[in-house]
Every structure is written in C-alpha cells, then in structure tokens.
Amino acid sequence: LLSSDNLRIALLSQDEDQIEICLRELSWEVDQARAVSVYVRDFDRRHLLKILDNIKTNLDMSFSSYGVYRKDFFIKAFNQFANIVRIYQVDARFSIFYCPKDHATWVQATTKAENPFRSSTVPKDCGLRVNRQN
C-alpha cells in the first residue's frame, strides 16, 4: 500500500520520471505479494490472487498507455487496492477515498483528500473519505 501511495503522490505532482519509478516498484511489490500469498487460507488466497492479478494487468497496461487510457488503467488498479483495504483490513494508516466527479477510488495514508486523477487545472482536493468496511 505504501508503494501505491507513492504512485499517487507522483501522479499528483505529474512527475513522469517518478511515476515510472513508482510503477516499476509497485509492479515488483505486487509480484512479492503474490509470492507470500501462500500463507493465506486457500479460499482467501484465490480471491486475493485475482485482485493482485487485476492490479498487475492494469499496471502493465499503463506502462504503454498515455492520457485518458493511462488514467483509466490507474483508476482500475487503485480501485483494486481499495478492495484489498476494504476486504482484508490491512494497515489502518490507509484510508479509502472516492471522487464522484471522476468515479475514481484510491487509497492514501493522509486524511485530507488528494485526488491523483484530477488534471493540473482542477483542484485536487475532490474526494470523500469512505468507510473501510464492506
């Protein structure tokens, strides 16, 4: 989750070099999460692997995408991170946020909404903190 928050921060600053670094780090972290998932109960593991595979697919697709298409892949990946927080009750530092204007969900460690999907000309504080429970 920390790596996804780093990507969110890079998206906020629109630093393409940092976005690329964060994408590679996050992709590696997802691979590591897949590897340690063997310690999760079988039923939960299958579900977790589907979420992680979905994240990985969307991150991989974002590497070769630009503009709106890339944003869509990021939104899909971040939504899956929110599912991990919601379903598996991981690290309490992270909260789920939702922006009704972008129809985007993301996870962040700070309590004030900082929407990584808003353009540079629109205020980035659009978003509501939503409940972590199902």
- Main beta sheet strand tally, sense and closure: 3 strands, antiparallel
Q: Which blocks of ≥5 consecutive residues have pLDDT under 50?
A: none
Specify the structural class: mainly alpha
Query: Based on DSSP secondary structure assignment, what is the total number of beta strands?
Result: 3
Rg, rounded, reads 14 Å
Helix content: 55-70%
Secondary-structure element series? HHHHEEE
Strand order of the largest sheet: 2-1-3
Principal-axes geometry comes out as globular
Determine the N-to-C terminus distance.
18 Å
Number of alpha- plus pi-helical segments: 4
Strand residue content? 5-15%
Oligomer class: single chain
What is the mean predicted local confidence, pLDDT? 89
Report on this structure.
This protein has 134 residues and is mainly alpha-helical. It has four helices and three strands. A three-stranded antiparallel sheet has the order 2-1-3. A hairpin with a 4-residue loop joins strand 1 and strand 2 (104-108). Helix 2 (16-36) packs antiparallel against helix 3 (42-63) and helix 3 runs antiparallel to helix 4 (67-88). The longest helix has 22 residues, at 42-63. It is globular and about 45 Å long.
Give a short overview.
This protein has helices at residues 2-13, 16-36, 42-63, 67-88; strands at residues 95-99, 104-108, 128-130.
Topology:
Elements: H1 2-13, H2 16-36, H3 42-63, H4 67-88, E1 95-99, E2 104-108, E3 128-130
Antiparallel strand pairs: 1-2, 1-3
Helix pairs in contact: 1-2, 2-3, 3-4
